[in-house]
Amino acid sequence: MKLPFLVRPAQLGLLSAVLLLGGPAVAQKARPATRPAEPANRIGAIREADLKRDLYALADDHFRGREGGTLDELRASVWIAEQARAIGLQPAGDDGTFFQFFHIQRTRLTKASRAIIGTHQLVPNQDAIVFAPVNAVVSAPLVFVGSATPAEVAKADVQGKAVAFVFSGQPADGLSYRRYLTATIRDRSAELVKAGAVAVVVVSDARAQTIYDNWGTGYERGRYDLPGGPNTRVVTQAPTIWLPAAALAWVQQPGQQFTAGLVVESFQYPSVNVVARVPGTDAQLKKEHVLFSTHQDHDGVRKAVAGDSIWNGADDNGTACAATLALMRAFRQQPALRSALFVFHGAEERGLLGSRYYSAQPTVPRESIVAVLNIEMIGRNAPDSATLLGSQRPHRNSADLVRTALAANQAGPKFKLDTLWDQPAHPEGWYFRSDHLPYARLGIPAIMYTTLLHKDYHTPRDEPATINIAKLAAVTRWIYLTGWAVANRPARPVADKDFKLER
Questions:
Q1: What SS3 string covers 192-256?
Q2: Does the domain made of 111-262 have the CATH classification 3.60.15.10?
Q3: Considering the entire predicted model, what is its pTM?
Q4: Residue 451 in this model has a pLDDT that exceeds 70
Q5: Which CATH class is domain 46-106+269-488?
Q6: What Pfam families does its record include (predicted)?
Q7: Shortest CA distance to 65 belongs to which of 461, 492, 467?
Q8: Residue 125: CB partners within 8 Å, gap ≥ 6?
Q9: Residue 422 to residue 405: CA distance in whole angstroms
Q10: How crowded is residue 137: how many other Cβ atoms within 10 Å of its Cβ?
Q11: What integer pLDDT is reported at residue 215 of this predicted model?
Q12: Residue 479 parent element (H or E)
């Protein structure tokens, strides 16, 4: 089912009404006589052909998956900046450019790190996953304790031993299995170390093996942060090593020795935010900015699946980048009263690093940012549904902004809005995993548009051919109508005074 959205004369009144929604009283105030009349929007500038062309270009193998902090991400960022220049936007990065560079600090195990169990020599993060980069030298007998239940551990002598167990268990209702698995491994390992273990070895069961296969590549790279951030700290502790299910046959054999020499290294390299601007037309309101947010990076070149090793990230986040370029064209054709600011954040997949950096050191006055409309994966799943994160408590930080977005949806595509993913108890914690979050923490009204996860999320199967271009266009038009309304209304969106973000 397609969702085309064309503006007809009969609808212009409805669209104009959207621009006045938001604050209940201030929305009714008359404009000052000196303020120019509100121009007609340019929703027709958002075209499926443009979206498809840009999506296929950015998610092509040419950019090798745009991994954050690599030359591939930098080349993709240059391509985006060139599109912004060609559209006619002003550079709004550092030093009169489209770019704001920042450093990533990466902490990982050296290639010389090794672990040996009996006769099995393991290359960490290739043959086995090391949960955290730790400096550790261990040589100890290995003892197998089944599933590491309290009764099994009590029967074993774990003092001074490397302790192995096979993962088991099921999450309570509503908890993501992946999050349950990592939390359980963390907690059981901590309990074993407290009981005297000098190392912990975890073996996957059949279900855990799926997570090992799909998410294990994330551990290969180590940890990332902005310089001095919490993930840059290196400690000496008992290591936890995670093995595939096939290892169970030999791990549980008695009389084996565990030996490990793990050495951590840490270094920095650059990532970049791409920042562009369309100045507003009102002498006063153009000093304020509506920020359209996205990220250009993905997972890069990783383990091959069905012969494909390039994880292109067409939906994550090629769809949002194509949408942002389309929004640029619309605002360039007809600027709003307020300025439109477009930020492609680098290294989002590394821990929201680009948005954390930009929100801390924006290239425009922070107080001039009246709202953040963040875009994350908008091209998959049911053609008539979408989600607005930050629309309900405790995630909502501006009821005013949410009302404007909901009105824009009714004036435009009329998506059925999934509210489950915005609830604090949702197992994926999706609200906390995209670039609106640092801005919301600063009290800036912020929402996120998404069409949610799918089976190809963070796999090499996330390809342009899987994207519903008509749906991508419909979501883009919804975002545009929201942003256009915010950019032209007399008053900036009001932040909720009692907003308190808790996870």
A1: HHHCCCCEEEEECCHHHHHHHHHHCHHHHCCEEECCCCHHHCCCCCCCEEEECHHHHHHHCCCCC
A2: no
A3: 0.88
A4: yes
A5: alpha beta
A6: Peptidase_M28
A7: 461
A8: 109, 219, 220
A9: 15
A10: 11
A11: 75
A12: helix 469-488
